[in-house]
Amino acid sequence: MSELFDAVDALVASRSPLPPAEERKRLRVAHGLTLDEVAAALKVRRATVSGWESVKKPTEPRGPEREAYARLLEKLAELYPASSVTDEPAAPAVPTTFTGTPAPAEARTLSTGQAPEAAAITATENTQTSSTPAAAAPAAAPRPARTTRPSSTSRRPGAQKAAPAGTPAGGTDPRFENGPLAVVDVEDGQVLAYCTGGLVLDVPAKSLPSLVDWTLKEAKLGQPKLSGPGKDADPLLVLTEAAIERYGLPVALTDEERLAGRIPENHKVIKQLTRADWQLTKRGFGPWARIYRPAKGSDRQCVQLCIPSWNALDTRHWGNAAQLPPAELARVLGVYASRVMTPRGSTAVTGLELMTALHPPTRASEPDENGKRHSEHNPGSLGKDAIDSMNWPPCEVPDGHPVLKDLPRFHVRGPGEKLFEEAYDWARPMTDAECTLRHLVGIDVNMAFAAGANGLNVGLGEATHVKAPAFDPKLPGSWLVDLSHVDLSRVKVGKEWVELDGSLLPSPFTPKGERPTGPAWYATPTVAYAQELGYEVRPIEAWVRYDNGRYLDGWYNRLRDAYLATMADLGVDADLAPSDFLAAMNGYKERDPELAIVVSAIKATVKGGLGKLRERPRGEGWRPGEPWRALSRPTWRPDIRAAVISRTRINLHRKIVKHAAFTGQYPIAVLSDCVVYAAGGPSPLDFLPYREGKPLPGGFKLGINPGLVKWEGTQDVLWGEEVRERFNAPELNLARYIKDGTVTDVDNGE
Fold first, then answer.
1. How far is CA 441 from CA 574, 656, 664, 713, in A?
2. For residue range 609-653, what is the model confidence (pLDDT) as tens digits?
3. Nearest to 65 by CA among 20, 132, 111, 1
4. The whole model's pTM is what?
5. Residue 354 contacts residue 345 (beta carbons within 8 Å)
6. Mean pLDDT across the stretch 207-235?
7. Torsions phi, psi for 64 (to 5 deg)
8. 3-state secondary structure of 280
């Protein structure tokens, strides 16, 4: 009979009544539970719990999850009856114990103007238990403390807890105790600032100038400097659509404003700021506005705004971050800020700013005879002054640069006049033997350009022109040299000469993989690789930089650590065995879509930051031969960009050659950091030469660390042949489409 009774109980529980979605969320928030905690206890995805609480279109739990969820809500309703709610739920009448300093939570609020003692409400732990395991887990889970709003007289206790994966830890600097940033939103007429770690602040500001004042005086937002001589990061406010409406700004930019990148100077909000003695930077009031007053000594008064509805968060790099609720958006940006830096603009701008933050241009000198310190050049930095436009080597600058103004208008510079270090875009027809295999497998180098920057010696100052120099692989520069004699059919791999089929390999000296036909300009890593392959090099001339150093090491380390920490939070650790790594990478983005956004932004920071080193004119009424705005930056350094790309391409070619020498397998396509091989099976393990779990030394290795490779995608060989026939392009670069097999147009190399 007991089995029958159990079946009846299960049948009844399967139809357990549930409160409306708003009440479900209220109960969870009242108890200080995060979506992650409830999801973990009920063994469902975070998005599933979020769907159960969706006001617009709630989903309904089923099966055993419904029974446990209903029991959880029932227990929480007993603790927090709806009738007792004013501004905060009343404290539950259960035994409590003192624990100590509270940790941030999803629904924690802090009133402005409170004394520090009032803000640090002690935490307690609920000792009541439940007989249902799934319900008991959330009920007994430690939950964070919550402080009170000014209008509330109640205090709801909570327990200290560890921050969930991917939540930035609170800093110890009391100036920035509420984190680096806040997402400002309006709910029921009240302006709220959602900070990292779940903290929510009440915002009393009625206008944008007063919001800036409040941020600097009361919000305690910001981030400590990343380097000794550097500057603390300014607080960042992210304004939702409701917030920008509240403060008199347009929800969206007009086409004209979008092209200009700003709202008009005569906008009423800008006039408000001007009357309050606030200033805007030269880029005006756009998606990433900076509002400041001139610094007085070490006293900086600056607040940065991010406006997602003005396309501040590019969907190519930030995914759907702009559509996230305020708390979730604060988490995404907060994790990025804690691991990379507080965003200063686009991911590209932030990547460039990170270089400067880690190597500030100046530092304080030793005290002089009067005990005073002065600003002096910070060794290892790029300095505070840009290289004079007319002092640039002509070979290193892009077309239209002032140093090229005397060239004929339609002159096209060839490789003997222009340094052309770019990423690979190479493909070849498949051999008959490759066509008998079943699969095309793509592998992708993790953080390839970051790995290329690691340990790279780059120039710090101006270049010196040298005629007929002896090549020095340790000296950064640009070299005019003829490498057409390098024959890939016979090269040195390590200390031994090996015979290869050079017709199946891309040249390491050109982005298109074509063999050079005469003298051309190359960055130091490219020329050094020609020597490594066993061939003599005799430069005709060079522009070299005797002032040099490993400027990008700290930049690489910070971005690498950010990437590895976030991937570890997503279940992909750095020490996994090859098969375990492939399994962990399968669907990793779905485990926590918010952290997956952070991963995308970190990778975009690498590529964008390096791209900014050679920023081209962006409108501004520019004409060829005239300087453009980016040239005034010390970080406008196309030579550094070229060196990183050169080294990245060479690193990839070195692995390709070692793989070919050991296995006899050759790539059929290479696109930037993706390589495609024909294989008998669909997995990278079907062609990568692992022996007893160990990879080929110096070859491709599966793993999440920068420079190692992951699986990019697999398609049938027949798919590749059909695509090439359809577009009548036997050398169509299949690496561009290997991920999902979708081909939308003829490959144009863009």
1. 23, 14, 16, 6
2. 999 999 999 877 899 999 999 999 999 999 999 999 999 999 999
3. 132
4. 0.79
5. no
6. 95
7. -65, -30
8. strand
